[in-house]
Amino acid sequence: MTPEQAVELADLVASIRASVEDAAARFAVVAAGALNLPEVAASPERHEEVAPPSTDEQASIEARLAAAACERCPLARGRRRVVTAEGPHQARLVVVGPPTTFADERDGASMSGEPAVMFEKMLTAVVGVPRDEVVVVPAVMCRPPDGRAPTPSEAAACRPMVMAQVVAARPSAVLVFGEAANAALFGPEPPLKRVRGLWRELEGCPSVATWSPHECLRTPALKRETFEDLVKLKGAVAGP
Ligand code: SF4
After folding, report:
1. How many CB atoms sit inside 10 A of residue 74's CB?
2. Are residues 202 and 151 in the same domain?
3. What is the β-pairing status of strands 199-202 and 205-210?
């Protein structure tokens, strides 16, 4: 090998090493973001900058990790991913949304697309809480095949995994969004149209159920009732 070739080889090795370190750092950030975990450092220097989670945060992290690995019902077989709770680990408001759809699974977030736009407007304009301060979790976290609704037994299997994440967030109030989420948490009777807007206790948390953005988009006449119900949450989740 000539001296020139040796220099070229050394440059190549240095370049590959830098690329690998950069990719590892970016992977750590992406992986942490996917589960809302504290960022995992890729180097000893960065590791020292990450504060350990509090006990409350730890409970939330563990509940989300358990949900991400859940195989309690047959929906685990056909899923591409579990859409777990997203948002901060502690929040004044937790939203339990409709069961996971194909678009939610693809985007890795509950209430994606047009419903997400309406959802954000509802939160900021009516409840007065920014979207990034709210925890959102679907009532059934794995997408059923062929666009069908989850069965009652699938919803029942998912309920404890969902509620573990809800309770871990220590919310002032829970918003239950839509007929399917209401049935998954409280049972199919009475239907949502009879209980919407009522304060009900949900494993120690005060909750209100109303129509989801999906239902409001399908039936615009429901928007007025939804607005009335969301206003009730405003006082319960008002900031200090
Ligand atoms: S739908 Fe819920 S209970 Fe069923 S495997 Fe997914 S996370 Fe587990």
Report:
1. 14
2. yes
3. antiparallel
Residue pair 185/139 in contact (Cβ under 8 Å)? The answer is yes
**Greater pLDDT, 114 or 85:** 85
* Whether the CB of 161 sits within 6 Å of ligand 1: yes
Report in angstroms the alpha-carbon separations of 17 from 11, 41, 166: 10, 17, 42
SS (H, E, C) 205-224: EEEEEECCHHHHHHCHHHHH
State whether the beta carbon of 163 lies less than 6 angstroms from ligand 1: no
Residue 221 sits in a domain whose CATH number is: 3.40.470.10
Is the beta carbon of 156 within 6 A of some atom in ligand 1?
Answer: no
Looking at the fold, whether 36 and 150 belong to one and the same domain comes out as no
Query: Residue 57: is its pLDDT beyond 80?
Result: yes
Higher pLDDT, 49 or 206: 206
Which single residue is written with the structure tokens 């450092």? Answer: 41
Residue 26 sits in the same domain as residue 67: no
> Domain tally for the chain?
2
On whether the pTM is more than 0.85, the answer is no
Task: Provide the pLDDT for residue 46.
Answer: 52
Domain that holds residue 11: 3-47
Q: Which of 83, 142, 151, 159 to mutate to test the pocket of ligand 1 (most atoms within 8 A of CB)?
A: 142
pLDDT digits (tens, 9 = 90+) for 134-163: 999 999 999 999 999 999 999 999 999 999
Q: What's the gap in Å between 123 CA and the centre of ligand 1?
A: 27
Residue 238: per-residue pLDDT: 79
